[in-house]
Amino acid sequence: MPWWSWILLWVALIAVSLLCYLLLGIRLFRKVMATLRELSAAGAKLGHLPVAPEPPQDDAGTRRPAPGSAVFASPEQMRHDYFAAKASRQELRRQRRVKRKAERGQPQSLHDIEFS
To answer: In which region does residue 68 sit, left (phi positive, over 0), alpha (psi from -120 to 50) or beta (all else)?
Structure first.
């Protein structure tokens, strides 16, 4: 093989590899642009969400925090809210248990009797 055929071979290999890189780059660019268009459409769609309604109220009439507000609250506030809600649920269960036992004429548990 003459020496100039090696040069032609390498030039052809380099040209084919550059062509492959160019085609891959174009394909990647088109996919990125399509993704950005979809992201822009999603942003426009989510940018016009309705205003959040007033926080819901539970059976006792107290206002509950809005969904998602725990993300921005301090851990101490969330801990306090958790234990306050837990104590409230326990007290409601205790009151229902006392009422149910009173209706049935059953003796009350010492844990259920209020000492205040």
So the answer is: left
Model confidence pLDDT, tens digit, residues 53-98: 665 566 666 667 677 788 888 899 899 989 999 999 999 999 999 9
Q: What is the value of pTM for the model shown?
A: 0.41
Tell me how many degrees the CA angle 32-34-37 measures, rounded to the nearest 5: 110
The CA distance from 22 to 39, in Å, is 26
Amino acid at 96: R
Q: CB under 8 Å to 97, separation ≥6 — which residues?
A: 109, 112
As a whole number of angstroms, the distance between CA 63 and CA 102 comes to 31
